[in-house]
Amino acid sequence: MEELINENKMLKEENLLLKEKLEKYATQHKKYYEINKEIVIEKAKSRLKKITEEHPEKIKEYRRNAYLKRKEKLKNENIK
C-alpha cells in the first residue's frame, strides 16, 4: 500500500513539473506570434498564393478534405 502512495506522490510531482515546462514553452510561442502576427499572416498568404499558382488541384483537394472532415464532425455531434 505504501508503494502505491509513494508512486502516486512521485507521479503528481512529475505531472506538476511537466505542466510548468509546457506552460513556459507555450508562452514563448504565444509571445512570438503576438509580436510577429503580421509577418506570420503575410508568409501564410504568400505560401497559399504559391501553391495556387503551382498546384491548383492541391487547393481543391485540401478544401474537399476540410469539407468532408467538417461534415463528419457535424454528423458525430448530431449523433451524440
What is the element layout, followed by pairings?
Elements: H1 2-35, H2 37-54, H3 56-79
Q: Would you list the SSEs in sequence order as H and E?
A: HHH
Number of strands: 0
Distance N to C terminus: 40 Å
Oligomerization status of the protein chains: single chain
Could you describe the 3D structure shown?
- With 80 residues, the protein is mainly α.
- The protein is built from three helices and no strands.
- It has helices at residues 2-35, 37-54, 56-79.
- Helix 2 crosses helix 3.
- The longest helix is centred in the N-terminal third of the chain and has 34 residues, at 2-35.
- The protein is flat.
- The relative contact order is 0.05.
Briefly characterize the structure:
The protein has helices at 2-35, 37-54, 56-79. It is mainly α and 80 residues long.
Keywords:
single chain, mainly alpha
